[in-house]
Design goal:
Length: 84
């Protein structure tokens, strides 16, 4: 456990940021999995409606540094490749 006051605060901040990062990462992964399931079930129109949400979630994760920029591009590219 941290002893100094600043170390205690740093621990609180890192926990809070870690939860926020996890939430963003899970949001991106979850929406991509939904789209994959819909495509596998041949529900293309429903999947098409979710693509902008997936792009938004992936871009937000990349913007805040949860995932890297190239990883976000790769995810979006593979998503569209699967869709087409």
């Amino acid at each position: 456990m941290p002893i100094k006051k600043s170390a205690k605060k740093a621990l609180r901040q890192s926990k809070k940021r870690g939860l926020a990062n996890l939430k963003k990462k899970n949001a991106a992964k979850g929406i991509i999995k939904k789209i994959e399931k819909l495509i596998a079930a041949k529900k293309v129109e429903e999947a098409k409606k979710l693509i902008p949400l997936a792009y938004k979630a992936v871009d937000k994760a990349a913007k805040t540094g949860v995932i890297k920029k190239n990883a976000a591009s790769r995810k979006k590219s593979r998503l569209m490749k699967m869709f087409n």
